[in-house]
Amino acid sequence: MNDVQAFGATKSKRILAKDVAYFCISEMMPRIETLDVCINLDKLSEVDGYCLAVTNREFNLEIDKRLSEDDFITAVCHEMVHVKQFARGETKDVNLFTKRWKGEEYLSAYSTVDEYMQLPWEKEAYELQEVLCKSYKVFKDKQN
Description:
Mean pLDDT: 96
Largest sheet: 4 strands, mixed
Strand order of the largest sheet: 1-2-4-3
Number of helices: 4
Shape: globular
Order of helices and strands: EHEEEHEEEHH
Low-confidence stretches: none
Structural class: alpha/beta
Number of strands: 7
Distance between the termini: 26 Å
Strand content: 25-35%
Helix content: 40-55%
Radius of gyration: 15 Å
């Protein structure tokens, strides 16, 4: 059974973070049942969030708790795409500066936003975050 926990911020933000994370799991990884995702909601500088893969089943996410609701949902979706990438073996950290993406090694260091946006795992995360965010909102509207 997948386990998602959220810490920090307000109760409503923790509930929202968990709800979005579980939604993303059901959309992108419906057959995986052994994920352990810890979401820390805190003040971040320079980024909206990040994902640390402890193992291919254990993840620590950091999300900026000050984001507006739409940006918050989008950030959780973006980081959950990275969870999917690691959990499904699509990406793997080789060392501090190198990642393997779908069998090919890439330097993961970058010095500009343009270089960052060209990293293949980030391209996918930015594309899917929008799809997931939109699907999540439709899903929630149907529930209400």
